[in-house]
Amino acid sequence: MNEMVKLIEQFELKELFNQSRLKGVRFFKSSSHIPRSPLLYDPGIFIVAQGRKIGHLGDRSFQYDPNNYLVTSVPIPFECETFADANAPFLGLYVDIDMPVLHELMGLLGQSRAAASVNIRDIPKGVAPADMDAAMHDAVIRLLKCLHSEADALVLGPGLIREIIYRALCG
After folding, report:
1. pLDDT of 32 strictly over 50
2. Which of 15, 28, 102, 139 has a CA that sits 20 to 30 A from residue 48's CA?
3. What phi and psi values does residue 76 have, to the nearest 5 degrees?
């Protein structure tokens, strides 16, 4: 069992969405398969700890799972199917993208040498999966750990959300 799953399982989650201690961060749990159905995600980052989802947008299909997180940069309707069962429930984390933070980070990237490594054509448009790299994984683990403490969530949480948005922007 991976560390993300262990950390999420420590929360008492009910089926579907659960608010965390931090505004803009929600958990998702499903103990059974959810057939393909329409949904709408607001701008955000959907990180999967266990299980997988397949999204369908027009003639495009994409999978998000422990190796790929999903980024939605605008509110977008698409269809999604969730794969899970009682022995291995689908567990995920959804982080809202705060647009003023995103704009600030894009401005800072534009002023830094790091901007040279970010091609504007590579920034996700609409909805797209991205590889879960080591830096993003580390940031998510630190966010999950901080959500176990009210004080840590209050003090450290906003900075970790900012880092996760930055990692998604660069990823």
Report:
1. yes
2. 102
3. -145, 130
d(CA 58, CA 144): 33
Q: Is the dihedral of CA 150, 157, 154, 98 positive or negative?
A: negative
Helices (H) and strands (E) in the chain, counts: 4, 10
HSE, side-chain direction, 13 A CA sphere, residue 28: 22
**What span, in angstroms and rounded, lies between the C-alpha atoms of 78 and 118?**
27
Return all residues near 146 (Cβ < 8 A) that are at least 6 apart: 152, 153, 156, 157, 160
DSSP bridge partners of 28: 17, 92
Instruction: Evaluate the CA torsion angle 169, 99, 11, 155 in order and state its sign.
Output: positive
Q: How far apart are CA 135 and CA 33, in angstroms?
A: 30
Q: Encoding tokens for residue 160? A: 């970790």
Asked whether 99 and 42 are in contact (CB, 8 A), the reply is: no
Q: Are 57 and 51 in contact (CB under 8 A)?
A: no
pTM for this model (two decimals): 0.88
Kindly report the backbone phi and psi dihedral angles of residue 30, in degrees, each rounded to the nearest multiple of 5, phi listed first: -140, 125
Q: What is the model's pLDDT at position 88? A: 93
